[in-house]
Amino acid sequence: MIADVLADAEERMDRAVEAAKDDFATVRTGRANPQLFQKILVDYYGSPTPLAQLASLNNAEARSLVITPYDKSALKAIEQAIRDTPNLGANPTNDGTIVRVTLPELTEERRKEFVKLVRAKGEDARVHVRGIRRKSKDDLDALKGDVGEDELVRAEKELDALTRAHVDAIDEALKRKEAELLEV
User: Which of 44, 68, 70, 162 has the fewest CB atoms within 10 Å, i.e. is most exposed?
Assistant: First the structure.
């Protein structure tokens, strides 16, 4: 029973860390990266569809990306979705077959804004991990009558160590992203 609670907590915390890393990847740095466009939803025949399902994304140069739609009728919708995406600052151009996106050079002020954004995302991820810890602790407390006090204390220490490890993993990913953002 205790092992099940701990295994579930670890699995959920692992997913939270991966979600945080994916979230960090959507914040742009000085280079064009197809991951920046992973969360862009395009209005495709009335339903929001992820851009990656509608087109292939390729790096043409360091600050430009070429988007080749599988369906040419989606060109205008893709271009509009990219233009409407906040915090991207991209200006897409459409030549009838592909969409070319050139990302402007980041200013020092904009880099600092992105660092703040990434730190907020990191704090949200840490709060989520601590929420998982709290729920797992409640689940352990519910087992109080079924298992011994010593086992519960050991399980809580294990849960705390698990939480610390996952928060540290988020902090490490945050540190890497901040360094990447501030690199000129």
Answer: 70
| Rounded distance between C-alpha atoms, residue 35 and residue 67, angstroms | 13
Instruction: Write the DSSP symbol of residue 103.
Output: P
pTM: 0.71
- In 26-148, where does DSSP find H-type helix? 51-54, 75-84, 108-142
* 94-107 confidence digits (pLDDT tens): 888 888 988 877 78
The helix/strand/coil state of 91 is strand
State the Cα–Cα distance between residues 124 and 139, nearest whole angstrom. Answer: 23
| pLDDT at residue 23 in the model | 87
Pairing between β-strand 64-69 and β-strand 47-50 as defined by DSSP bridges: unpaired
Asked if 39 and 26 count as a contact pair (C-beta separation under 8 A), the reply is: yes
